[in-house]
Amino acid sequence: MSVRVRFAPSPTGLLHIGALRTVVFNDFFAKGKGGSLLLRIEDTDRTRYNPDSEQEFVDTLKWAGIEFDEGPHLGGKDAPYRQSERKEAGIYAEKIADLIEKGAVYKAFDTSEELDEMREFQRINKMPTGYFGGDWRDASPEKVAEAKAAGRPYVIRLKIPRDVKITGEDAIRGKLEWDSNTIDDPVLLKADGMPTYHFAAMVDDHLMGITHVFRGEEWISSYPKHIVLFQAFGWAMPVFVHCPVIVGTDGKKLSKRHGATRVLDYASQGYLPQPLRNFIALIGWNPGDEREAMSDCDLAQAFEIRGIQPSPGRFDLDKLKWMNGLAIRAMSVDELFDTLREYLASEITSEYWNTLEKDDELKIDPAHFVPGMTLLKEALERDPDYVRTVLPLEQERVSTLADFGPACEFFFVEEVVFDQKSVEKAFGTDHVRGLFEFLLAVDSDGFTAADWDKAVHDWAAEQGIEKMGPVVMPIRVAMTGKLSGPGLFDLMAVLGPGRVRARVSRAMEHLR
Ligand code: GLU
């Protein structure tokens, strides 16, 4: 039987890192096994429904490079893929009728006040909370008929068997076992006829021929209910894979402190989809060897369920930065140029940076990024050839696309901003004035990095200066305003004679 998996988010808000991990596992598993991946929208909880959410999912998954074979936006043999539409099509009503006929479910007419009272009673008496049968599981047919005739609203609950062990398999943890007396009777169909997750997801997994259910570990406690439901129908179970929770490097539950939790924020921050997929796949899973930076093809080939650990997966932003930096370095100049142009032109980039406030928790300060990104964006339009020569110099040094902003800023400003400390450190030596005068005088038209290298070394030799540090440093500060950056002679060649001279002249104003 060929592998068929699904990503089944509830459209209640943004798409977060945890959900992306589920879909990434599904995706690599399906690709590696030649199977198919479908998107199903679980929108039956109308109180938590968010109308913008589905679009956010589709946009995010598209950006992240997750390709579905079927889904509400694509169609497919199991359409419709939105549970609200499946409800309208009568799919769940038909299945609930089967269960009624089998005697596996019952109607419960409790009012919300009665349910509150029951919970309060359980709480005070330190009893397990939940609906373990109440007044209705064993109610006589006459009592039920009477309540129905009186038009009282009711839900349909699943009869969890009592006084037995419920057992099931989890692909990561092996055999699991529960005392059935600790499992309450879940609602399958609400009073308005809407199915709950327990019902709709299991029915759909069966009808859609899902072979493996990858979902978060938080669903393990509901798993016995799902097992009983599959048994009630007499259906074969898919393989259930409960994926470990994600924690930060401090071992605490993933939160904003560890990095953004909304996936699209990573797009805005200048991460690339492939290294993000790679990084996400390695949260709680490993290929069984030491490999880390992997292509999609390698990931798909290596992805086996036995590589998923039951222990929490660690989210390490530094690792993502490293992987993203590798991917940036692997690009050709043309590829990098196009990627950056697209990134800087994108609405999500500008919206993110323009509305972001300095965030110490996230350790992100828009003031550090935005001016440079704006200059870079303008330069891309105005002087693309110059930008093409600039980019390779910073390509080795950045981790994200956004980093190109501050890194390249000095290439595009009319006047570099001198960092006072750097000025004090670099401009104090006696030979600096002579050095700057030489730089102004030398005929540097058409100078390459090697030409600059030679000219500056020759000048130093003439002056009897042996150590190059005190020569290179003042020039660097004059060119960039800072003490660190790409290779000095490379950047001088890229700046060209006009800019070099203008910058030296300005630097001379800082000499005492
Ligand atoms: N709709 C559920 C959620 O968003 C999906 C759980 C599952 O994959 O079965 O959490």
Notes on the structure:
The structure is a single chain. The chain is 49% helix and 9% strand. The protein has helices spanning 17-32, 53-63, 83-88, 91-102, 112-124, 141-149, 197-207, 223-233, 263-268, 273-281, 296-302, 317-329, 333-345, 347-355, 366-382, 384-395, 404-412, 420-426, 432-441, 449-463, 469-480, 488-508, and strands spanning 4-7, 36-39, 105-108, 155-158, 165-170, 174-179, 187-189, 212-216, 239-243, 246-248, 313-315. By secondary structure, it is mainly alpha-helical. Helix 10 (273-281) crosses helix 12 (317-329), helix 13 (333-345) crosses helix 16 (384-395) and helix 16 (384-395) packs across helix 17. It folds into four domains: 4-86 and 246-315, Rossmann fold, CATH 3.40.50.620; 90-243, 3-Layer(aba) Sandwich (Rossmann fold); 331-412, no CATH class; 420-508, Arc Repressor Mutant, subunit A (Orthogonal Bundle), CATH 1.10.10. The chain contains 22 helices and eleven strands. Glutamic acid (GLU) binds at residues 8-10, 42, 197, 201, 215.
What's this model, at a glance?
49% of the residues lie in helices and 9% in strands. It contains 22 helices and eleven strands.
Q: Percent range for helical residues?
A: 40-55%
For the biggest β-sheet, the strand order reads 3-4-7
Distance between the termini: 81 Å
Helix count equals 22
Report the uncertain regions.
none
CATH class of the largest domain: Alpha Beta
Choose one word for the global shape: elongated
Structural class designation: mainly alpha
**Heterogens:** glutamic acid
Largest sheet descriptor? 3 strands, antiparallel
Count of discrete structural domains: 4
β-strand amount: 5-15%
Question: Taking all residues together, what is the mean pLDDT?
Answer: 96
Q: What is the fold named in CATH at topology level of the largest domain?
A: Rossmann fold
- The count of strands amounts to 11
The fourth-level CATH homologous superfamily of the largest domain is HUPs
Please give the CATH architecture of the largest domain.
3-Layer(aba) Sandwich
Question: How would you name the oligomeric state of the polypeptide chains in this document?
Answer: single chain
Radius of gyration: 31 Å
